[in-house]
Amino acid sequence: MKIKSFFFMMVITIATVLTGCEPLAVFDPKGPQAERQARDIMLSIGIMSIVVIVVFAILIYILIKYRASKMPEDYEPPHIEGNKWVEAICIGIPIIIVGYLSVVSVQSNYIVESTPQGYEDQEPLVIYASSSDWKWHFSYPEEDIETVNYLYIPTDRPIEFKLYSYGPITSFWIPQLGGQKYAMADMITTLHLAADEQGELMGRNANFSGKGFAENTFSVNAVSPKDFDEWVDEVKETAKPLTEEKFDEILQPGHLGQMTFTGTHLEFAPPPEHDHGSGDSEEDHEVHEEDHEKHEAHSEHNSH
Fold first, then answer.
1. 70 lies in which domain range?
2. Coil vs helix vs strand at 201
3. Which of 25, 32, 177, 295 counts the highest number of beta carbons within 10 A?
4. pLDDT-based confidence at residue 285 (cuts at 50, 70, 90)
């Protein structure tokens, strides 16, 4: 009786705790990349659930049908070498499942690594996202502004993140927009995302990088294109310029709140030259170089 009461209380406790849990962010997508990944996760969970239910059903059936109490005392089981149908099912079905999930995974990998579907004809907003102990720096070269520990992005426009690190390897992750990707010190990795809905999202470093890792987070404000332009104008009117001395101070290990500057650290602390995973052609690289030269010329003009 005590054992039954214990298990009953355990079930009630677990159900109560789970009732108070918020839905997982990966199952509440706000962009096409995250939606594709959530769909793949649900597909995998569905297939695994079917397998588990079928296996347990067969197990219960066998335990009941072939239990020892139903056999006479002089019963001797027949000698069986094997059953080709049972072996074909036990081997064939897992191969089919693994093969199917492999095809889905490869297709999804190509989809989430490229420009979000439906945004191929739009010019992406390029943001350099760099990490340091334990904060995130977001440089907008086109807008000539920089933020620390928060992002402003327009909805209905592709976002191209250029990721790198000023310290240990970190992992840039906005669960409701897409999967995580590493940021490293000696190379740039490119991540393509887009937001379909407005709202405030959470981003973080998903790779352990020291004692301050748990608070290495940032907020993401997805706003309309009009509101984004207004925010850019407001920053240019109110924010102070980012100097090399100030940037060196920010790079020191520790936690900071949200900060906003005009100008970017790309002027005096350029990112790594090696760009991995961008999928750009030689013409695209030439365009990026021209944009960088224009940005430097614009900065020099403003300084004068």
1. 24-113
2. strand
3. 177
4. very low
